[in-house]
Batch of 2 targets.
Target 1
Amino acid sequence: MRMTCEQIAARFEACVTTLNRLPGERSLGYASYWPDIVYTPRELAGQDTRPLRVQATPKEIALMEEALGWIHWVNSAERKLIWLRAYRTPWRVIARETGYPRTSAQRYWQGALTKIAQRLEPMRVCAG
């Protein structure tokens, strides 16, 4: 089954979402020696609850790693277009950042996704 350009673009958007769900870096060697603050139940009731951070699942990480492997099949200008669009950057901003006219940026982005789709096709045939 051949992946369409829309499916490939959706995979890169999912890749961005997964990257944002991964835990951040922790610097080793730094510690706080201040005592922990113990709040009373009344103080806890008045505080805002922390937003729940959803962690990435192993399946999402595996799909992300696969999509990251595809990015090496295109040149650096196409990579920039793919990532800017995966972050849902508006085309007007992309055109300003890359120096391409808006319609040309869209065409180059579509061409980069098509290049990836063409590289994926032989893999699908050989795997089956």
Note: The two ends are 10 Å apart (CA to CA).
Target 2
Amino acid sequence: MNEVLVSSASLKELISELYEKAGMEKEDAEYHAYGLVTASLRGVDSHGVMRTSAYLSRILNGAINVHPDIRIVEGSKSFVVMDADGASGYTAGKTGMRQAICLAKEYGTGTVIVRNSNHFGAAALYAQMAVEEGMVGISTTNVKPGMTAPGAAANVGGNNPFAIGIPTYNDFPFMLDMALSVVAGGKLKMAIAKGEKIPFDWATDKDGNHTDDPQKGFDGYFLPLGGFKGLGLSYAIDILCGVMSRGAFQNHIKNMYKDPLDPSRTCHMFVAMDLASIIDKDEIRQRMFEYREYLRGIPTKSGVPLMLPGEIEEASRIKREREGIPVPKSVYDELVKLAEDYKLSAHI
């Protein structure tokens, strides 16, 4: 058996207790667990529970500051910069988007750039916070360069992800969550954990040669989505998040796997837009339903209707809430051992 089905509730309990025992504040530990399990529920396993031990190591070695002083350091009114003081990216992300939502309630829109943070997981987590307040949510982050340019054999830009969430008031929100490489780095980590090959157009090795070996690809360079178009978006995110916040950018950023003892110093940006100031819920519901039905009515060769971003993830969430989250056996065994080593009351 390569996978074990585990309930989302038991995973949340175990991860939360584990991080709290490692020294993280209870509220932050619970949110970290919520973020990891939510990603796995939505089928984004690359940013889910498989990362539990990696974050734990960073908590234990001090790369993540478990008692941060997150504060506003620049800006005014609807546009501010916050310093995360080396916090977990989950803690910094939640704080940053909360501030953006607060500003949007007052000004109509709120933009918060956060510097001096760490890896914040799946970007959709923070866009969803705004959606739940009836707002458009945009979240993005820079990361250490690990993506090459077509024809190059060196790190050029970061695989900088972003999410755009829009409330629909139907059965799921619009939620576009994507990185700028052909696939996110966590996909390679998942392939490594499962012992699987990867497509040749995902990454190159250290010499710039296309590879189907996920470890060689992870140690080498990711390929950008859309060639130089994806690379250009990578530059834009790095400039907005890192350069403009006076935070880290390009190779000033550290990688959570390749630099396990160092704070990542990543920078994020969160935008919230209050739709209530321009359109009411009923009209959003009606117009977004019409938008979705138009797409569903377009013929496809496979016969499968076109979907809005977020629809596949919502279907995964419903299924996995009911049946359990499929956890690779190697990750399952790792979690069981951590529970034993730390004498946790929680178990899976």
Note: Residues 89-107 form the longest helix (19 residues).
